[in-house]
Amino acid sequence: MTSLKQVTSDGWDKTAETLAKFILKPTIGFSTYFAIDALNLSISKEENEKPMTILDVACGTGPLSLFGTEVYKNSKFIATDFSPKMIEVLDRLIKENNIKNIETHVMDGQNLSIENDSIDYTFSIFGLIFFPDLTKGMKEMYRVLKPNNKSRVAIASWCKDSFLVQIFQETIDQLLTEQNGKPTTFYQRALSLSNEFEFKTHLESVGFIDVSITKVEHPMEINEIVDLIPMFKTNPTYIDCIDQLNTEELKLKFDQLFIEIAKSKNPTRSLENNKLQLRSFSFIGIGTK
For a Cys-Cys bond, which of 9, 44, 63, 138 suits 206, CB 3.0-4.6 Å? Predict the structure, then answer.
């Protein structure tokens, strides 16, 4: 079994530019909508103008921080990721948009170089779900929050009924079954917190109280199904699936089968912009320290 690229910084380095181009825009991109949900579910409108310190863990190219600075203008954002390339791309977006209140650091979310009890809110939008040790990551997010019964965490995880994770799962499982001669299922780290009860239990186990798990939906919009392959060719999730296959024949089958299965789901087109709507669901886990 090959080591998973999804848990390495260089695995995510390779897809930073692609994420910034296709998904994480400096204003409103696909992941940004889920980041907005996390912000709205955890920070009350009465606190918008307050000076706060907000930590964005495993920030990627920064959808939460980039949007958050537009709403929480008096707050300081600390955006961290263990991928130097992700931070490099985010730094470029910060400079291009003349943003002054985001501080960036290359940092492992399982070992944050941040003082105890110093953060008002901490977030991870589809980042912590890839950590080798979920509990360790949550403990770090708990540790840095202020102990005032108001500081909160918000973590976004993909759900099993999201279009893309379903297509990846069905494609790799079918090919692994062909390879192994018996039914085989590949574990997607993107689904590490896709069980609502387990997600809640994880948060409570590290000390969070008043834990809630909210399911939200936003579609990924694309022009055509075939556009998905260039979008994900450098993504470690895609690479990890390919790496599970032992022959070039099976590896070459992946893209074609992926497209066939995706098309078989018959995603609908928006009447507004004629783009395909890929239904995408997330659990947003909220907890208070």
Answer: 138
Q: Please identify which residue in the block is written with the tokens 């290359």.
A: 106
SS3 content of the chain, % helix, strand, coil (to 5): 45, 20, 35
Per DSSP, 117 falls in state T
Reported as a single tens digit per residue, the pLDDT across 188-226 is: 999 999 999 999 999 999 999 999 999 999 999 999 999
Q: Which residues pair with 275 in a beta bridge?
A: none
Residue 213: how many CA atoms within 13 Å on its side-chain side?
Answer: 18
pLDDT in tens, 14-39: 888 887 775 555 456 788 999 999 99
Angstrom distance (rounded) from CA 62 to CA 99? 12
pTM beyond cutoff 0.90:
yes
Contact 156, 35 (CB under 8 A): yes
Q: How far apart are alpha carbons 25 and 152 in whole angstroms?
A: 26
Domains, the chain, with CATH or none: 5-288 (3.40.50.150)
Biggest alpha carbon distance in the chain? Answer: 60
